[in-house]
Amino acid sequence: MKLILLGAPGAGKGTQAEILSKKLGIPTISTGNILREAIKNQTETGLKAKAFMDNGQLVPDDVIIGIVRERLSQPDCAKGYILDGMPRTIPQAAALEESGVHFDAVVSIEILDEVIESRMTGRRVCGSCGASYHITANPPKAEGVCDVCGGALTIRKDDNPETVKNRLKVFHAETEPLKDFYAKLGILKLVEGNQPIEDATRDILKALGM
Ligand code: ADP
Ligand code: AMP
């Protein structure tokens, strides 16, 4: 199963990707998590990406395409994978097509901009494994501690309301056109994102015919 999760920042891609990854036994590839890890480790990629991410802009396509090509060539991707946060532009989607990757489905998690702000102000992410929580909608078992790996939870620098506004603008301009791109390929599925987490998971699995 090769799956793409599309959706605005805060739509619930990371949350659903984690759940689906466990259910389907395939890895999740989150370009956001890979980039945040690169920034933490001060790699060349991290240094290139940081200013774009802090401003809510997209990291250049060539950087992302390089990261994803490398990651998809690893053995754990052989049985399939879930892409979370990639592609975000038409050139990124075209690069995936050109490398001969064909997806079973592209699930767009639909949500209105108005809902996003409260999601982002309540988001906490694990600084070690990248797992995503929400202080009220999806709290960890112990405050400030990741259920998955015991890492410390942090607030993402780009989750402040001003940067979120930018990210939404960028989403509508650059990423939303991908819905048309994948609709034309006949693999686009729309799922309501403004409902409890487990209901969204149920609808995604239904859309995948599971
Ligand atoms: P994305 O990866 O699309 O940016 P996340 O999965 O990190 O989004 O979710 C954004 C925030 O919203 C997180 O705090 C997450 O816990 C919370 N969240 C995710 N799905 C839902 C939902 N269905 N209802 C309420 N809150 C949600
Ligand atoms: P995310 O964790 O998916 O919300 O991504 C956080 C930030 O990382 C985005 O706002 C972008 O700056 C950058 N990023 C992640 N994935 C991509 C991508 N596919 N293309 C360009 N920039 C990306």
Automatic annotation (TrEMBL):
AMP binds at T31, R36, Q57, L58, V59, Q92, R156, R167. ATP binds at G10, A11, G12, K13, G14, T15, R123, S132, Y133, Q195. Residues 123-158 form the Adenylate kinase active site lid domain. It catalyses: AMP + ATP = 2 ADP. Its main location: cytoplasm. One of its GO terms (biological process) is AMP salvage. Residues 30-59 are annotated as: NMP. It is found in: Cytoplasm. Consists of three domains, a large central CORE domain and two small peripheral domains, NMPbind and LID, which undergo movements during catalysis. The LID domain closes over the site of phosphoryl transfer upon ATP binding. Assembling and dissambling the active center during each catalytic cycle provides an effective means to prevent ATP hydrolysis. Some bacteria have evolved a zinc-coordinating structure that stabilizes the LID domain. Monomer. Catalyzes the reversible transfer of the terminal phosphate group between ATP and AMP. Plays an important role in cellular energy homeostasis and in adenine nucleotide metabolism. This is Adenylate kinase. The gene is adk.
